[in-house]
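Quick check before the chapter quiz. The format below is the same one you will see on the exam, so make sure you can read both the input and the output lines.
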Amino acid sequence: MTAKKIFSKVYFSPIHLTSFYQNKFEIDRNSLPITNKISEQVLTLPMYPNMTSEEKDYLVDSISEFFEK
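Here is the expected output.
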């Protein structure tokens, strides 16, 4: 994606790992192992209201091309 100048990042911060929930509810960081695993696999892609059709097509084509390899 970087080679095609498409910003992407794997990140998702589960709420149970935030300092607020950690402090307020004393939640064990490992209490939701599936959520933790998924949080490391969610891919964030550019999406915004004024995205043109050409930009959407480029994004979709680039993703398709990535998975064809």
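If your answer matched, good. The two ends are 13 Å apart (CA to CA).
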